[in-house]
Write a structure and sequence with these properties.
Elements (H helix, E strand, L loop, with lengths): L1 H20 L8 H12 L4 H10 L4 H10 L11 E6 L2 H5 L2 H12 L12 E6 L11 E3 L2 E3 L4 H11 L5
Parallel strand pairs: 1-2
Antiparallel strand pairs: 1-3, 3-4
Helix pairs in contact: 1-2, 1-3, 2-3, 3-4
GO molecular function: 2 iron, 2 sulfur cluster binding; metal ion binding; oxidoreductase activity
Cofactor: [2Fe-2S] cluster
Pfam families: 2Fe-2S_thioredx
C-alpha cells in the first residue's frame, strides 16, 4: 500500500511540475496555471499552489487568495462525478429544490459536499443558460434537461461504479 501511495504522490508531483512548467515564470499566468491544475486534479492541491507561487515568483498568500476568490476553484478534492444543479429562477420555479432534496436522499450530500467514497460531489449554480430546459442537471459536463426525480436516480445509477 505504501508503494502505491508513494507512486501516486510521485505521479501527482510530476503532473504538477509538467503543468506549472508549461507556462512562462510570470505572474500573469497564475490563473491559467490554476485552471489547468483544477482540470487535472479536480481541485487545487496545496503542493500545486506552493509550486505555482514559486514558479511565478509570487507570495503564496496571493496565489491562495486567487484560489479562494474564484468559485470555480476548490481547495478540497471533489468527487469523480460532479453534479451541478441549476438553481436559477426558471430552474428553481420548475423544481430544482426537489432535485437537490432527491440527491440528498439518494447520496446523503448537500450542496458543497462530497460523498465519503469520493464518487459524487454536489454543487448548485446560479444559471446554466438553459432556462427552456428547466430544471437542468449537469453531470461531469453532460447536460440533463427537464430532469425528474426518477431520471435523476437513473443518472446517478449510470455514473455509480462506471469509469467515466
Amino acid at each position: 500500500m505504501d508503494m502505491a501511495v508513494n507512486s501516486q504522490q510521485v505521479a501527482d508531483r510530476q503532473a504538477i511540475e509538467r503543468i506549472v512548467g508549461s507556462y512562462p515564470p510570470e505572474r500573469r499566468y497564475t490563473l491559467a496555471i490554476m485552471q489547468d491544475l483544477q482540470k487535472h486534479f479536480n481541485y487545487l492541491p496545496k503542493e500545486a499552489l506552493k509550486m505555482t507561487a514559486v514558479h511565478v515568483k509570487t507570495p503564496l498568500s496571493a496565489v491562495f487568495s486567487m484560489a479562494t476568490f474564484y468559485k470555480a476553484f476548490s481547495l478540497v478534492p471533489k468527487g469523480r462525478v460532479i453534479l451541478k444543479v441549476c438553481d436559477g429562477t426558471a430552474c428553481h420555479i420548475k423544481g430544482s429544490n426537489v432535485m437537490i432534496n432527491e440527491i440528498y436522499k439518494t447520496l446523503g450530500i448537500k450542496p458543497g459536499e462530497t460523498t465519503p467514497d469520493g464518487e459524487f460531489s454536489l454543487e448548485t449554480v446560479n444559471c446554466l443558460g438553459a432556462c427552456a430546459l428547466a430544471p437542468v442537471l449537469v453531470a461531469n459536463e453532460k447536460v440533463y434537461a427537464k430532469i425528474t426525480p426518477t431520471a435523476l436516480r437513473e443518472v446517478i445509477n449510470k455514473y455509480r461504479g462506471a469509469d467515466q
